[in-house]
Amino acid sequence: MNLQSKYSQLIKTEAKRLGFMSCGISKAQFLEEEAPRLEKWLKQNMNGEMRYMENHFDKRLDPTKLVEDSKSVVSLLLNYYPSETQNSDSFKLSKYAYGTDYHFVIKDKLKSLLHYIQEEIGEVHGRAFVDSAPVLDKTWAAKSGLGWIGKNSNLLSQKVGSFFFIAELIIDLELEYDTITTDHCGTCTACIDACPTQAIVEPYVVDGSKCISYFTIELKDNIPSEFKGKFDDWMFGCDVCQDVCPWNRFSKSHNEPLFNPHPELLLMSKKDWEEITEDTFRKVFKNSAVKRTKYAGLTRNIKFLKS
């Protein structure tokens, strides 16, 4: 076993110990195929008000511009599929937001992994990324053999479906690189057919500006009235294209205690949500990703669902 292979194995073993579901590694280089695709998507304004998607175009496509002298992108998946979901008489919350904000949970694990690499291997420089920097997470995870990008534009895996977070370490260490996996969507169009707002405009292309997650989390203005009655009771995020995906039959419950929801959350009915106070919001979503939309945003979404 050569050194690169040995180091790669070390990293993957430690990632597993830290609770990551899987780990794949790819060479840090310019994403040639992605460049025209991203450019076209932005030109068609599919990012809506998410103007930050237009920033750092070159960094999004080239990790060596984010981390000087970087050689490898270590992609990691962390399961968030819950063992229990909300009761049926409730406005819905995307499953990823049930527990503690994933940014905190994953950042800590990534720091531990980087620290471990430095202790075991020596002077390795790098940065940890969790969905908050210009990194094309899904593309890197697919390049690292962790799955393929499906027709709903999510990363899908034959073994575990798609209810997981994606994160990266970009480091200046040469490693053994994994190979890309094949697409297993076949002729299935379940996600396209089920999308309540027809946001999947063609296979593999999602118009972000039509997605329920965009309206309920990213959009700061009023939700356009043409979408009234089309939100299928989603008040924060949306899981429809994942819930209907046949590969998610293989989702297994996570075992990360921090992702367990506040006990009250699963019991709340529509009436409870309609009457939610700022105090209850703070208590139920103490360290949650739902804080991103704030109390005002969540109550706006609930009012829109009722109207």
Average pLDDT works out at 95
Radius of gyration over C-alpha positions, nearest whole angstrom: 20 Å
Low-pLDDT segments: none
What string gives the helices and strands in order?
HEHHEEHEHEEEHEEHEHHHHH
Outline: globular
* Terminal CA distance: 64 Å
CATH first level of the largest domain: which class? Answer: Alpha Beta
Whole-number tally of structural domains: 2
Strand content: 5-15%
The count of DSSP E runs of length 2 or more, i.e. the number of strands, is 10
Strand count, sense and barrel status of the largest sheet are:
4 strands, antiparallel
User: Helix content range of the residues, please?
Assistant: 25-40%
Task: Please explain how this structure is put together.
This protein has 307 residues and is α+β, with helices and mostly antiparallel strands. It folds into 2 domains: 3-87 and 95-171, NADH Oxidase, CATH 3.40.109; 190-251 and 261-306, no CATH class. It is 34% helix and 13% strand. It has 12 helices and 10 strands. The chain has helices at residues 3-17, 34-43, 57-61, 102-121, 137-143, 190-194, 212-218, 240-243, 263-267, 270-274, 278-284, 294-306; strands spanning 22-27, 72-79, 92-93, 126-129, 148-149, 155-156, 164-171, 200-202, 205-206, 234-236. The strands form 4 sheets. The protein has a 4-stranded antiparallel β-sheet with strand order 1-2-7-4, with helices on both faces. Strands 3-10 form a two-stranded parallel ribbon. It has a two-stranded antiparallel sheet with strand order 5-6. β5 (148-149) and β6 form a beta hairpin. α1 packs antiparallel against α4 (102-121). The chain starts with a helix and ends with a helix.
